[in-house]
TrEMBL record:
Protein name: RNA-binding S4 domain-containing protein
Keyword field contains RNA-binding: yes
Listed InterPro entries: S4_RNA-bd_sf (IPR036986)
Keywords carried by this UniProt record: RNA-binding
SUPFAM superfamilies: Alpha-L RNA-binding motif
Organism listed in the record: Actinoplanes aureus
Transmembrane intervals: none
Molecular functions (GO terms): RNA binding
Pfam family, one: S4_2
Length: 70
């Protein structure tokens, strides 16, 4: 698992996937989230705009990243 620092106290799921290099494009994020291939804290989340906070763990296609405060 990789720790990925964010500015502020919140980031949206779609933005975090790209920041963490879990995906390459926003379009890829949209597809993977809509198809149920993304989990947040172990649960599938279909909302690209889901708010993530430090401590949240995101997994996509077997790759995992944790949100941490900068």
């Amino acid at each position: 698992m990789r720790d990925v620092p964010i500015d502020g106290d919140m980031i949206r799921l779609g933005q975090f996937l790209k920041l963490a290099d879990l995906i390459e494009t926003g379009g890829e994020a949209k597809i993977l989230i809509a198809s149920g291939d993304v989990t947040v804290n172990g649960e599938v989340d279909l909302r690209r705009g889901r708010q993530l906070h430090p401590g949240d763990v995101v997994e996509v296609l077997g790759r995992t990243a944790r949100v941490v405060a900068e």
